[in-house]
């Protein structure tokens, strides 16, 4: 009999209702594999950043029973260097080894509690400079959608809460389950690029053509060799114009985007097929198995064999003493 994984969401004052509901909505679509409870530090209602408060059924005592604790974000005007002592004590009540997850400004809570010192983490790009100033011991990377550092995971703002919850399901139960949950929630199983594509920047000239056609062509022909000139040709642009427009639209260079798509396709094939590594490399456009191994390791820090073992094997906790550091970033 499969044990149900308990997720406890800690709502703090000023919480964003949308992100507060993400864990329940996403994990709740995983066919009973997860139980999601919501609590506050004292069991009392908390204000949201909207014109209403929320009432919860649980106090901090349920944190002691959690397998995973999620800290959703709260309004940036409530962000302070010193998190209320009651919040820190509530987090400290979680059992050792409990997986900790933050969404957006929830990373401020984990950082203020000293739980991110010396570790990679991310938060919303808008507050990245403030976060770095207040918590210099944290290895902040504001360019990614989320970072998986084993038992501590952090994500960027708003919709990246969906990304990190789907990643956790994929990590716990594999790609097939995560993809089915994504379909139920009508969201993509994963998103390309990092926060760079959402950072405010000048709007490209409206007279310029987009690069979506070239990206779609590339995705349909990943197994074929392709150059920047090939991509530019499908957008009817010069090389210089195409490179600039592509970066504006995708948040990364064409070369980095293409590598990321090939790595993502390889990950999918490793999860869902028994094809040899060399054959997978050929299907996604890498020169050979060695090239695939190098790019996969650069992207997520593991070999194809280790990745396949993780996502094709029976779901289980990481063995003692192991840590996986994964970041969904621009590659």
Account of the protein in words:
The protein is of the alpha/beta class. The protein folds into two domains: 5-185, Rossmann fold; 205-313, Orthogonal Bundle (Arc Repressor Mutant, subunit A). Helices cover 41% and strands 12% of the residues. The protein is built from 13 helices and eleven strands. Strands 2-1-5-6-10-9-11 form a seven-stranded mixed β-sheet, with helices on both faces. The radius of gyration is 21 Å and the shape is globular. It starts with a strand and ends with a strand. Mean pLDDT is 86; it is low at 200-208 and 314-325. Residues 212-310 form the HTH araC/xylS-type domain. Keywords: Transcription, Transcription regulation. InterPro entries: Class_I_gatase-like (IPR029062), DJ-1/PfpI (IPR002818), Homeodomain-like_sf (IPR009057), HTH_AraC (IPR018060), INH-QAR (IPR052158). This is GlxA family transcriptional regulator. Residues 319-331 have a biased composition (Polar residues).
Which band does the percent of strand residues land in?
5-15%
Low-confidence stretches: 200-208, 314-325
Rg, Å, rounded:
21 Å
CATH homologous superfamily of the largest domain - what is it?
Answer: Class I glutamine amidotransferase (GATase) domain
Largest sheet: 7 strands, mixed
- Annotation, overall tally of beta strands: 11
Total helical elements: 13
The average pLDDT value, as a whole number, equals 86
- In the CATH hierarchy, the architecture of the largest domain is 3-Layer(aba) Sandwich
Given this structure, which CATH class of the largest domain is correct?
Answer: Alpha Beta
Helix content: 40-55%
Give the helices and strands as they follow along the chain. EHEEEEHEHEHEEEHHHHHHHHHE
Structural class from helices and strands?
alpha/beta
Terminal CA distance reads: 40 Å
Gross morphology: globular
Strand order of the largest sheet: 2-1-5-6-10-9-11
For this structure, the CATH topology of the largest domain is Rossmann fold
What is the count of structural domains? 2
